[in-house]
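Thread: quick sanity check before group meeting

JM: Hey all, I'm pulling together slides for Thursday and realized we never actually wrote out the predicted structure for the chain we discussed last week. Dropping the sequence here so it's in one place. If anyone has concerns about the input, flag it before I start.
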Amino acid sequence: MTKKHAAMEIENLRKVYSTKKEEVVAIKDVSLTIPEGKFVSIVGPSGCGKSTFLHIVGGFIEKSTGKVKVRGKEVEKPGPDRGMMFQESALFPWLNVFDNVAWGLDIQGVAKKERNEIVEKYLKLVRLWDFRNQLPSQLSGGMRQRVSLARILAFDPEVLLMDEPFGALDAQTREEMQVELLRIWSESKKSVLFVTHDIEEAVFLSDTVVVFSGRPAVISEVIDIKFPRPRDLNLYKSAEFRDYRNQIWDLLHKEHHKPVQIVSEVVNG
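JM (edit): ok, ran it. Output follows.
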């Protein structure tokens, strides 16, 4: 029988940045397991290392020590098993929506018929098929982020890594995108690791919220969010939602003024 691995396994992860004068611990011995199909968010004080953590899982930043595994395979560099979505859409402005989503498949050498079927599938999933001939400049910010998500899903990655993908959107569009993301996630059945500074966003989206401390980042608390799915925006009005929000707010403000940890100083001779 084949062993079933968790979607993501992080063991004793540590990241230290070195300068000429000192070494600064960004992440200190973080361990976290994310089960298959779960939506997990990370929140923490500004500059605590949550985006660094996500980029290490993505293979874009080298860890100092520890292990990062995706479905049992250790991460050493970026790979197609991880789809990374950033705050900015990073679409090619000279390509229309269809060709932006098709671009990665073209690079992979996917046959034209199969490529077109995949692009159609995911543009319909994100409800942008009718906009397939538009350029990014003709789309709203939320629509551009949906194109970015379709492009990532077209690769069929094993996990989705999302770094503040709605951070640049206005409040109303952001809420609309949260609902859309939950719909798309429920249909795609991907495992998601989502970084945000917005506590309410984390509570609304997630099965679990991981609260990072101030730098050096350690896990202050892991909070399971008990709301049933599917969810809608009326959840924001509930007393239970406010309770979760206040619990996380208290944890973050307790840690906010924690001093940066210096490992060692180098004395110039």
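AS: nice. The first strand starts at residue 8 and ends at 18. Helices lie at 50-58, 97-107, 112-125, 141-154, 171-188, 199-205, 239-255.
JM: adding both to the slides.
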